[in-house]
Design brief:
The structure is a single chain. This protein is of the alpha+beta class. It folds into two domains: 2-149, Ribosomal Protein S5, domain 2, CATH 3.30.230; 156-281, GHMP kinase, C-terminal domain (Alpha-Beta Plaits, 2-Layer Sandwich), CATH 3.30.70.890. It has helices spanning 52-58, 87-102, 109-120, 124-131, 168-173, 181-200, 206-209, 216-219, 226-235, 258-270, and strands at 2-7, 11-29, 33-39, 71-77, 134-140, 143-149, 156-162, 240-243, 250-254, 276-281. The strands form two sheets. Strands 1, 2, 3, 4, 5 and 6 form a six-stranded mixed beta sheet that branches. It has a four-stranded antiparallel beta sheet with strand order 8-9-7-10. Helix 1 packs across helix 2 and helix 2 (87-102) crosses helix 4 (124-131). The chain is globular and about 55 Å long. It starts with a strand and ends in a 9-residue tail after the last strand.
């Protein structure tokens, strides 16, 4: 299951992009629960029935098919935990896929996203983890419509990842529940430009299309480095930049000057006393591989 970045500036809970960091899991049914975790996040996740992979393999199936006796999982993870890079969405998609396979159930991606939505709470990262590429997620009456667009192959994601997990739940509370009409209209225009930029592979639209007035202004309280890092990335040559999901990672989209951008972002973070690292990633074209 791939990592993902959501919002991409204006597309709050709507736009997402799959990235080529992966959560890999080997699973079998067993009398109890045993989890061997290698890679990123080994000290940050529960290794018992509270683990998201275990929950996703059990909870969505309750009441309509048999419970699993237990699970033995061997996990290899590349996705940073609690940094706004879709680690929970990858785990939920993976857990549901595992739960279906071990029960002998055939399950469409549409059904997986519908089962995962109540556990995740929003569909953007789930869509990217399931379909790969650039995604638009529309939620209505508990249902989800996900639309995947092919990503321009020359565009890369340069991601600054803080060394420590971020207060993502707190950051979500900083988003205004009743935004101003002018801000909503501003973001609608930018989301439309995002879709046009991807469809037409038009790099000139990226900087303006990644502007946001809905969620990032409030989240500055949690991530005071955000504006300076976006400016540093753009000055170094990025086509645009934004907070990744609920943070605290920051993603820049670029098709050149990748090394310069990767150096500029942690320099801007260091000015705020924040340590972290950068990764230059491709977009994952596919979702889960079973």
């Amino acid at each position: 299951m791939p990592a993902s970045t959501a919002n991409l500036g204006p597309g709050f809970d709507v736009l997402s992009l799959a990235l080529n960091l992966y959560l890999e899991v080997e699973a079998r049914e067993s009398p109890g629960i045993t989890i061997t975790w290698k890679g990123t996040g080994a000290n940050d996740v529960a290794l018992d029935h509270h683990n998201l992979l275990v929950r996703a393999a059990q909870e969505p199936f309750a009441g309509w098919t048999r419970p699993l006796k237990g699970l033995a999982l061997r996990v290899r993870n590349q996705i940073p935990i609690g940094r706004g890079l879709g680690s929970s969405a990858a785990a939920l998609v993976g857990g549901i896929a595992i739960g279906a396979r071990l029960r002998g159930l055939r399950m469409t991606r549409q059904r997986i996203i519908e089962l995962a939505l109540p556990l995740e709470g929003h569909a953007d990262n789930l869509a990217a983890a399931l379909y790969g590429g650039f995604n638009i997620a529309a939620v209505e009456n508990g249902g989800v419509r996900a639309h995947r667009l092919d990503w321009p192959p020359a565009w890369r994601a340069v991601v600054f990842i803080p060394d420590h997990p971020s207060p993502t739940h707190h950051a979500r509370r900083l988003v205004p529940s009743h935004p101003a009409l002018a801000d909503a209209v501003f973001n609608l225009g930018r989301v439309a430009e995002w879709v046009l930029a991807v469809q037409q592979k038009d790099r000139s639209l990226l900087r303006s299309s990644m502007d946001d007035r809905l969620h990032q202004p409030g989240r500055i309280a949690a991530y005071p480095y955000l504006d300076d890092m976006i400016a540093a990335a753009e000055q170094a040559g990025a086509l645009g930049a934004a907070l990744s999901g609920a943070g605290g990672s920051v993603i820049a989209i670029a098709d050149r000057a990748l090394k310069k951008i990767a150096e500029a972002m942690p320099t801007a973070a260091a000015a705020h006393g924040l340590a972290g690292s950068t990764m230059t990633l491709s977009v994952a074209a596919r979702g889960p591989r079973l």
